[in-house]
Amino acid sequence: MKLGEYQKLTVVKRVEFGVYLAEHEGEEQRVLLPAKQVPEQTKPGDELEVFLYKDSKDRMIATTHTPKLVMGETAVLRVAQVGKIGAFLDWGLEKDLFLPYKEMTRKVQPEDEVMVRLYIDKSHRLCASMKKLYELLRTDAPYKKGDTVNGRIYEFGHDFGTFVAVDDCYSAMVPAHEDCSRFQIGDVIEAKVTGVKPDGKLDITLREKAYLQMDADARRVMEVIEEFAGVLPFTDKASPEVIMRETGLSKNAFKRAVGRLYKERRIEITERAIRKL
User: Fold this and answer.
1) pTM value?
2) Domains of the chain
């Protein structure tokens, strides 16, 4: 019998408080299905499809109810409460699902919605984790280049990019050169598909079409110049790291924005600085 999964088990004994199920007749390992969930007319020998988890007393128990999350999948669950050692998530069963602090990628609060997977801890109990979601996401998204999609950020990969679950189930990524520092884990974003990899994963962008994005980037550069009292202490010859840190733009986007502002005669460029006119 496997925790966290649906299984077809055989009714081997009926008692006042439910029925006992086993993989087959004569099997010593049995699990209880409470009386209130036993279908009418059920008798020994019948086969029932159930989900297995552990109750509040850590006893394996069967249910015919449908949980919002099963082993090998991901789901977005609501935080019911937060305790001293972790949080408890509503997953559609009588007992809430435990999310330990060590399995969080950010602190959560009651009513937050978090994307998680199931795992079995050292005490052989089902728990939730916000980590290692990447390999469980689907790669058969119905989207193509140019489509607008909505996705939930579930991990910042830094050197690789920002990992996103489109529609909370399809694997996607925002490239590393795009600034996502204003977001946090769990935020839902709108993006455009820039490509579909051979393995089915989506490449997405937060940036608009070039002519629209350049306007936004130019406004951002002017805001930064204002923050530096009208004189930006570097030019487009600065390192990509400096430009990204100070403006949130890639070096190429910064150069295009500076070029736009220069043609509009809103700035002047010296050897080491950019000055507002």
Assistant:
1) 0.72
2) 6-63 (2.40.50.140), 78-129 (no CATH), 137-205 (2.40.50.140), 210-276 (1.10.10.10)
